[in-house]
Amino acid sequence: MLKVGVLGAGHLGKIHLKLLQQSSKYQLVGFYDPSEENAKKVSKEFGYTSYNSIDELIDAVDVVDIVTPTLSHFECAKNAIVKGRHIFIEKPIAKTILEAEAIKTLASQYHVKGQVGHVERFNPAFTAVKDMIDNPMFIETHRLAEFNPRGTDVPVVLDLMIHDIDIILSVVKSKVKNIHASGISVISETPDIANARIEFENGCVANLTSSRISMKNMRKTRFFQKDAYISVDLLEKKAEVVKMKDAPENPGDFDMILQNDEGVKKQIYFDNPQITNNNAILDELETFADAINNDTTPIVTLNNGAEALRIAQWVIDSF
């Protein structure tokens, strides 16, 4: 079992601590939190071992799970990597592109593995259909959340939209050509609502909308490709696939047939992929353990995290 320690015991850090303690692939050594009051509270309530410093915790583990505010990601990652520790780092990978690139360089130099916490890649609704997504040419995403003061230290693009940016980059095999975006600050000092149109060199267009001041929560993504439409509800864990194929010569009474101006007939049929419920955070942590133990490439690499940050920053710069 890999010895693991968690940096940061806030809302998400406590979730990571709980799951790592349950995991059969890790031995949870303990955690470090800069707030002495919070560290004592978490240690007393859950029984986790609290360390007095980041270095003390890093020295005791094989893997460092970084669940601190984004501003401190780089320093935490650097401290772990130079001591030869593998790192799992929550999204966004870092505050700036330069920091993200430095983390990549250090990980390569010290021969350690890293994974970024883009948890939607492990959402069962997405994993159920990702192999059906083939050269999509139009993608639409809506990620709406009710207001929560946690996370408002960064623009909504880095807080919410970056999840969808990462998913889109994982399925569109082309470089980004252009971005048009707008963002509005309503409650926070940084934009709370944002819309971005991302154009790829292969002609694909993605339209993304994110808001953290909505009346209801929504996390939906739609992929349009030749002869198929794929809808993924990441919040409700549902997926629907609508496909078209050449119509049979003698269609049945209940077959749905469309005919265009050229007389070409297509049959429409529906598929509701089976969704296997999972804990996406536990899955991302355990697949990272597998990548370390088997010396394979993590599912969400440091390079993936850096590229998602680069595009997110491009969106912000387009406001």
Automatic annotation (TrEMBL):
It comes from the Bacteria. InterPro entries: Gfo/Idh/MocA-like_OxRdtase_N (IPR000683), Gfo/Idh/MocA_Oxidoreductases (IPR051450), GFO_IDH_MocA-like_dom (IPR055170), NAD(P)-bd_dom_sf (IPR036291). Residues 2-118 form the Gfo/Idh/MocA-like oxidoreductase N-terminal domain. SUPFAM superfamilies: Glyceraldehyde-3-phosphate dehydrogenase-like, C-terminal domain, NAD(P)-binding Rossmann-fold domains. Residues 156-217 form the GFO/IDH/MocA-like oxidoreductase domain. It holds the Pfam family GFO_IDH_MocA. This is Gfo/Idh/MocA family protein. It comes from Polaribacter marinivivus.
